Fold this sequence. Notes:
Helix content of chain A: 10-25%
Distance between the termini of chain B: 43 Å
Number of domains of chain A: 2
Order of helices and strands of chain B: EEHEEEHHHHH
CATH architecture of the largest domain in chain B: Orthogonal Bundle
Distance between the termini of chain A: 26 Å
Number of strands of chain A: 16
Order of helices and strands of chain A: HEEHEEEHEHEHEEEHEHEHEEHEHHHE
Largest sheet of chain B: 5 strands, mixed
Oligomer: heterodimer
Radius of gyration of chain A: 24 Å
Number of strands of chain B: 5
Shape of chain A: globular
Structural class of chain B: alpha+beta
CATH topology of the largest domain in chain B: DNA polymerase, domain 1
Number of helices of chain A: 12
Largest interface: A-B, 65 and 61 residues
Number of helices of chain B: 6
Radius of gyration of chain B: 15 Å
CATH topology of the largest domain in chain A: Aldehyde Oxidoreductase, domain 4
Amino acid sequence: MTWSRTPSRxxxxxxxxxxxxxxEDIRHEDLLxxxxxxxxxxxxxxxxxxxxxxxxxxxxxAVLTADDLxxxxxxxxxxxxxxxxxxxxxxxxxxIALIAAETAAAARAAAARVELxxxxxxxVVGIAAAFKDGAPExxxxxxxxxxxxxxxxGDVDAAFRDATHVVRTxxxxxxxxxxYIEPRAxxxxxxxDGGIIVTTTSEAPFVVRAGLAALLDLPMSKVVVKVPVLGxxxxxxxxxxxxxxxxxxxxxxxxxxxxxATREEDMHACNPRQNSVVALESxxxxxxxxLARRSRVWLDSGAYAFDTPAIASLATLLATGPYRAxxxxxxxxxxxxxxxxxxxxxxxxxxxxxxxPTRRTSPTxxxxxxxxxxxxxxxxxxxxxxxxxxxxxxxxxxxxxxxxGHRPHRAMATGERGHVxxxxxxxxxxxVDDDGNAxxxxxxxxxxxxxxxxxxxx
Amino acid sequence: MSSFVxxxxxxxxxxxxxxxxxxxxREDFGLTGTKLGCGTxxxxxxxxxxxxxxxxxxxxxxxxxxxxxxQTVEHVASNGIGALVAEAFAAAGAVQCGICTPxxxxxxxxxxxxxxxxxxxxxxxxxxxxxLCRCTGYLPIVDxxxxxxxxxxxxxxx
Lengths: 458, 158
């Protein structure tokens, strides 16, 4: 195609015509398709995984469980996550068995024939539950509350003693799904020298390369990572993602293997931004100037560490601004519980921004110092999702979305089974004072014409 | 054996093939410009034109297309109004990661081809409300469609 006008970016031309090749679009002779059998339970002991029927199914080349693989763990900072769950499952959606088959349909059919015998154990649900006395350890031998990241400066106690007012704020922020339109996918191809070529949806190919080399016990020179056109990431594709799953299946079969997450899998077992609890105290003088701040933040790390310890440090550092405060005592803890969680772009910035005064504090009503940011909208995940979906659905109906014959008959037939990739987070935020009284008003995000995501840079 | 016309080419469909249209387009015909975003009809990345109407191909069985005509982005964006839309998208900064772009181009083209070249901004927003974009914030996309609409008016005086 010839263009009479200049495209705004070099790859715009191939993207508008559908010629751009994303990971899922790459065709390969010999390709096997993968499926993962995922845990329906958040916490359970794995008694038995019956794979005989799946292995005997038509077109199946490999069925792998933890028993078929060496016990190596992956993770960005702390290597604690097995490839398929070993002995225990720690979040709903954790892979237990991996299948490679001639077609995607055969892989799915085989996955349905895997028998799971799971013994439910007590789940750790909610940040508060993770540090109750006697709460079961998510990973045996590791406390559910991780090491604190702390920043201190000045004489905080003196500032609070002398302050005219003290403003106390407690905020709970919900999970945020990054909402990239391209679900995660990985293609792994074997090399004759024992190496592996991995084509994957990643924002950090060198992280994938180093991580896979360690996980597969290969020298880095034998791991090649390619990232073709990427359909959005927003921090959700910073980790190995599905690469370990595809890589072990590729090694087991000696064939190229591709795994593509469904949207449902992606939302269940990927990496939403951590939900958090923020407890903030600000000492202010009579004219509202901030004298000192104390903060305690608990970040939901999910079942595995990933980079939450680093995010905890970052969140603490970000809390030092943007307003000057002569004295600070800021602490953040990662908390482990039975869910997946990892960072999204702008680590914890929204939760921090909710703690930032955007109006001058009035000496007579100091509790009005916190307000919601106008610039934030995103997807929801897990807790509260059904309500968000319902509201978004109502909003869509109200706006007559798909009013021109687009509305799918299958969705109608199966009820509202779709996920809302993007909706406002305002439904799920509470801003309360110490007595539990609502503070301020959640400010509506005015920029979302459709109620969709608003971040303008990818 | 049934058949349908896809991008001007007659394609045979095996008896009892119970796959979705998007699977047949991508797997059998290699038309990977049609993207699978959600599989539940929410994101619109898989939009194709079926007998002159934009539909989500993740929600249409291939067998439903027997005797009908399907156009995917590969065809739409290279011909007539679709080419104007595609060019406007590329020029207006309406393309970032690009995974949603084929769906938008198809939906916008079908909208303009339906006689809406004198559309308002609000009408464009409603017409594209079945498509999700995570990168652009939608404004450049609507700008691009309005731009394409003005070109359609210039080229085809009513």
